[in-house]
Amino acid sequence: MEVRAGLGETKAALVGIGATAPQERSVAFDLDDHVLLLAWDEDEHLTTVAVGGPRPAETAFWLAEQLEGVGRHVSGVLPPRVRS
Fold this sequence. Notes:
The protein has helices at residues 7-16, 56-69, and strands at 2-3, 28-31, 34-41, 46-52, 74-76. The chain is of the alpha+beta class. The model has no long low-confidence stretch (mean pLDDT 86).
């Protein structure tokens, strides 16, 4: 998913919906039994959030709704990669 917001803004929104991080400056978060990895794209001015865990697609769509609900525009959620 790509969030049209800065890394700090995105991290604050994630903390606001219950995600935790092992360190204040961390770009990895735990959300229930999922891990969220964040990366800031300086050229595009957006934060990419990768969701890992037992239900990554379901969690990514839920997370996108939550971020939209706190005023962070989410430009899309990509489907999970299928392993063969």
